[in-house]
């Protein structure tokens, strides 16, 4: 498995978004092959109209989150909820990673100056996909009964530890 760069290299959305991938018009693509996303499941738990508590996990700053970070946060929250309040919650991922992250791999080490081509064709190859989030845009949504509110808050607290940036939990 390829080594992944740390999140600090791509958590700020300071460059232009490269999300153009079309199956219908392949000549208009900016990228030839779309990197796979780690995030595949978006709804967990059981939907129930009787739930009276709804919580949202919201970033306090603009941030860009890779699909593997979103998947890790989703897994840790869902695992906690399944262990403590089985089928008494509904958990939903509200964002989808569209933005393609590119990387220009450079040779390093002894003799790298003779091997590397420097900045020629430095546009980079697609490595992963990420979701660009604005301040206040919800990432996850949790519904449950008010008697289980402490478990819902703890699940969001654990999920926020897997994501780069600062988050707050809002009642909706």
Q: What does the model show?
A:
The chain has helices at residues 67-84, 112-115, 149-160, and strands at residues 43-45, 53-59, 63-66, 89-93, 99-103, 125-133, 140-144, 167-171. With 172 residues, it is of the alpha+beta class. Helix 1 (67-84) packs antiparallel against helix 3.
In short:
With 172 residues, this protein is of the alpha+beta class. It has helices at residues 67-84, 112-115, 149-160, and strands at residues 43-45, 53-59, 63-66, 89-93, 99-103, 125-133, 140-144, 167-171.
Strand line-up across the major sheet: 1-4-7-2-8
Taking all Cα atoms into account, the compactness measure Rg is: 19 Å
Number of continuous helical runs: 3
N-to-C series of helices and strands: EEEHEEHEEHE
Strand content: 25-35%
The first-to-last residue Cα distance is 40 Å
Protein structure class: alpha+beta
Principal-axis shape = elongated
């Amino acid at each position: 498995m390829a080594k992944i760069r740390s999140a600090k290299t791509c958590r700020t959305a300071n460059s232009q978004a490269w999300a153009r991938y079309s199956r219908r018009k392949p000549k208009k693509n900016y990228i030839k092959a779309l990197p796979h996303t780690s995030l595949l499941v978006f709804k967990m738990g059981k939907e129930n109209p009787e739930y009276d508590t709804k919580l949202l996990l919201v970033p306090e700053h603009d941030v860009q989150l890779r699909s593997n970070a979103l998947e890790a946060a989703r897994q840790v929250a869902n695992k906690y909820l399944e262990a403590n309040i089985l089928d008494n919650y509904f958990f939903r991922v509200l964002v989808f990673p569209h933005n393609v992250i590119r990387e220009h791999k450079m040779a390093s080490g002894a003799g790298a100056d003779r091997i590397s081509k420097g900045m020629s064709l430095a546009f980079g190859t697609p490595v992963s996909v990420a979701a660009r989030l604005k301040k206040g845009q919800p990432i996850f949504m949790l519904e449950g009964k008010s008697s289980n509110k402490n478990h819902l808050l703890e699940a969001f607290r654990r999920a926020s530890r897997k994501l780069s940036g600062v988050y707050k939990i809002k009642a909706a």
